[in-house]
Amino acid sequence: MSSKRELVLSALHTRLQTLAAPVLRGDVLPERIPATGLIILRDGKPGDPEVTLSPVTYFYEHRAELEVVIQAGTGRDALFDALAASIGAALATDRTLGGLCDWVEAEAPEPVDLPVEGAAALKAAVITVVLHYATSDPLI
User: Fold this and answer.
1) How far apart are CA 18 and CA 94, in angstroms?
2) CA 62, CA 45: separation in Å to the nearest integer?
3) pLDDT per residue over 79-111, tens digit each?
4) What is the mean pLDDT of the chain?
5) By CB count within 10 A, which of 25, 70, 81, 125 is most buried?
6) Taking the model in full, what pTM does it have?
7) Which among 122, 90, 117 is positioned nearest to 14, based on CA atoms?
8) For residues 76 and 84, is the Cβ–Cβ distance under 8 A?
């Protein structure tokens, strides 16, 4: 049986699979970035939950991270913007991830340009996705 945390993260990963860029989960950055860009989902931090009693319920604002990377000689800004917008659109189609979350929202990215010796530069950012959900046990 999977924990609520794992169910939520798996549902987020599945939701992002609809994007044009490949979405990996917990992998290392590969040597080659596809022309459509690349997204790596990191589990992030569940944080300290709010707890209510009777029945005991743990309310999390889990902060998962999406590492978004574009590699292109020209047009990196537009490609990055389009990929970030497509992430927002994918999340907006179902803010509850099929009822697993109370709400899902992304925070604005802070992109950086990274030069690569002998190759096209990278534009990358971490997009934090806040997953609001409740569970009866922090380990289940």
Assistant:
1) 13
2) 6
3) 999 999 999 999 999 999 999 999 999 999 999
4) 95
5) 70
6) 0.94
7) 90
8) no
